[in-house]
Amino acid sequence: MNDSADRVVPARPGPVRDDWDDDRPLPDLPPLPADPRWRVEHLPFLTAFSVALMICAASVGFFAGGVPAAVGAAAGVGIVTVSFTMSTLVFAWADTVRPALLMPLGLGTYIVKYTLLGVIMAFVISSEWPGRLALGWGIVAGVLGWTAVQIWWVARTSLAK
After folding, report:
1. CA distance 73 to 67
2. Which helix (H) or strand (E) holds 99?
3. How far apart are CA 125 and CA 149, in angstroms?
4. Which residues contact residue 133 at a Cβ distance below 8 angstroms, ignoring those fewer than 6 apart?
């Protein structure tokens, strides 16, 4: 005979918590600005920086390897600029529409970006285009430059408050 009343159910390890519905107040968090433009207010400055970096990269590429290297270096910075701008716009949009969308849309954006970057790099590496090395260095310069300026921007705006 199988009587379920005779079974012993082991207790869960750890303390029992009965305070899930407590009335403690939530911590005070700073309110988000009413104006959603704060999410993208850095884009004009970063875009101007990227254009200046693109001109510098093209100049260095031209003097190092001629027109193909100039085009490659400028294209590398341009790829990074488009990639980072796309991420910023997707994150800003998702945050204004529904913050719960940030994670799935952010991951989806990164999957799309890195897939496209991989396809571009695979195509360029397999080609005999003389500007391919400059393209790689342009991508490196764009990532380092954009990241450094974005860190500077955040630090500047955080200290101003």
Report:
1. 10
2. none
3. 29
4. 65, 69, 72
CB 71 within 8 A of CB 58: yes
DSSP 153: H
Tens digits of residue pLDDT in 110-160: 999 999 999 988 999 899 999 999 999 999 999 999 999 999 988 888 776
Tell me, what's the pLDDT at 97? 82
pTM: 0.74
Helical residues (DSSP H) of the chain, grouped into ranges: 43-65, 67-97, 102-126, 132-160
Tokens describing residue 152: 């500077």
Return the DSSP state at 60.
Answer: H
Q: What DSSP line would sit under 114-137, residue for residue? A: HHHHHHHHHHHHHS--TTHHHHHH
Tokens of 36: 């959603």
- The whole-number pLDDT of residue 39 equals 80
Distance CA 88, CA 33 (A): 17
Q: Which two tokens stand for residue 157?
A: 């705006």
